[in-house]
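Z., the sequence and structure:
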Amino acid sequence: MEALAGRLSDIGNRCPGCGSSPDFKPLFPISEENDVFFFECTHCGIGTANKLPKDDLVLELYEPKNYVSSLTNETSLSKRCAERILPHISVFDPTGDFRILDYGGGNGNLSKQLIEMLSENYPDLRLTSAVVDLYQRNDDGPISFVTADEFLQSSDTYDLVIASAILEHLVDVKTVMDRLIECGNPRAIFYARTPYEVPISRIIGRSIIRWPRHLHDMGPAYWSHLEEVYDGRFRIVKSRTSLVETSFATRPVRTFIAYVMKAPSHLESFFRGNANKFFWKLVGGWEVIAVLNETT
């Protein structure tokens, strides 16, 4: 890995996950040439690097020519992700206007899949989606695009809030999570998908975390912490291992290994439900579905 001296900033005296004064447990080195190590916050359970990219490096890392998201570029993956969200929307039998926020949604592919599916199930529903992306794009029918700064300054509210495979890229997770929860209408659905690679890294004795793009690791302990902290504004209804991103058609070996590694976690979730602690942690990724702002 290239040396990035001058393009990184120290984490300082604030945990990027919960905002508390750092009380970190050291885990393992990430990039010795850049003096980067991974730690776990003892307050919120987030895994995080001790050095984070500065703004100029962030822009370079996520230029469209340098970064391709599997979720936004593979329709089959977007469809499978939408199918995991849809049953939790249907529980509330939505009517009238239904507004989606897709934070970090890239080209809006996931929003398109959700709007298509919801339109079939609820033909009278008036569906719109706001996609938050680093780079401004042209609006596309019911889908509009806003920048991250515009979202943070906005007072708009939504019925479905999505943060799929994005939180791990953010320098300041807490500020964004505060706004994501705040922007949810009463009983809005929240969906997030995050990497959970620290347990595998510790078992094999080396990091598989893709720093400097992946800055954080967020498993069930982190999400359980949020449920406690937000107290009635963030109620977990499903906490489980995430879907397998690859397919047997394109990457058969990796896909087979992923299904095998995730199988014990699926069984544990089936029998134990939404436990705060899970025995089988070698899954590589996690997802959570929550209900927002029930007490507001």
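Residues 252-272 form the longest helix (21 residues). The mean pLDDT is 89.

Let me know what you think.
H.
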